[in-house]
């Protein structure tokens, strides 16, 4: 194979492998950035606009109790300060979910297709015009059977109280191996006046994939050095 062609092929392979970080991998969470639907108002005050693929609940354990969407959910959009607005985080798009007035739970079920460790990512933010620290926010992951949510030990995050206008980013890989074909629930307890965004549950790359990426990067370096010496 011609060196230039080989360099192109290896570059594409390394790029594909190295771009498999949390935001680029196969996220099992739908609408994890709360970008859908597009909120109608750009000032952040969109109370009653619910995020696609998520269920809003009043239960702290994610039980199937639909909340009053007119008072408990606000799909916040925009960067201006003022009532209901948000300071956008640097992780995901132009919208985030805001709990309005009371603590709510927003949850989504997902089913892995492979047995694997999974990277879990989430960002909590504080409403920019509210000086109160609120009750705090956290997530839980558990199983669902007969409409009963059972949290799994080790899959509950610490409670955070973001300061107004600031975000707390969490990115972790628990030692728990998620099982293919099992339905899990990602339940977020969102305390007033917090926001949530950038939710990701993505499989950790296998060691073979990481090794291939390293081999490809090494080959790229070797080809580059060889090409430089000839030039």
Q: Give the count of structural domains.
A: 1
In total, the number of strands is: 11
Percent range for helical residues?
Answer: 10-25%
**CA gyration radius, whole angstroms:** 21 Å
Structural class: alpha+beta
- Supply the CATH architecture: Sandwich
CATH class: Mainly Beta
**Amino-to-carboxy terminus distance:** 20 Å
Number of helices: 3
Poorly predicted runs of 5 or more residues = 4-24, 64-72, 79-84, 208-217
Strand content: 25-35%
CATH homologous superfamily label: Galactose-binding domain-like
- The CATH topology label is Jelly Rolls
Largest sheet: 6 strands, antiparallel
Q: Residue-averaged pLDDT, rounded? A: 73
Note the run of SSEs as H and E. Answer: HEHEEEEEEEEEEH
Described by the principal axes of the CA atoms, the overall outline is globular
């Amino acid at each position: 194979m011609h060196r230039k062609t080989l360099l192109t092929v290896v570059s594409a392979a390394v790029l594909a492998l190295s771009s498999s970080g949390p935001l680029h991998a196969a996220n099992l969470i739908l609408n994890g950035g709360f970008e859908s639907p597009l909120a109608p108002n750009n000032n952040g005050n969109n109370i009653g606009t619910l995020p696609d693929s998520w269920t809003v609940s009043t239960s702290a354990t994610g039980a199937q109790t639909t909340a009053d969407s007119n008072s408990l959910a606000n799909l916040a959009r925009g960067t201006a300060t003022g009532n209901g607005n948000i300071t956008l985080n640097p992780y995901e798009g132009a919208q985030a979910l805001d709990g309005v007035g009371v603590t709510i739970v927003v949850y989504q079920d997902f089913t892995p297709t492979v047995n694997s460790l999974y990277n879990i990512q989430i960002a909590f933010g504080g409403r920019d015009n509210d000086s109160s620290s609120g009750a705090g926010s956290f997530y839980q992951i558990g199983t669902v059977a007969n409409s009963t949510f059972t949290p799994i030990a080790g899959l509950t995050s610490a409670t955070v109280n973001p300061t107004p206008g600031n975000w707390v980013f969490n990115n972790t890989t628990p030692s728990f191996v998620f099982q293919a074909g099992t339905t899990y629930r990602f339940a977020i307890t969102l305390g007033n006046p917090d926001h949530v965004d950038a939710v990701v549950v993505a499989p950790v790359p296998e060691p073979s994939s990481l090794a291939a990426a390293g081999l490809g990067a090494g080959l790229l370096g070797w080809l580059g050095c060889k090409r430089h010496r000839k030039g």
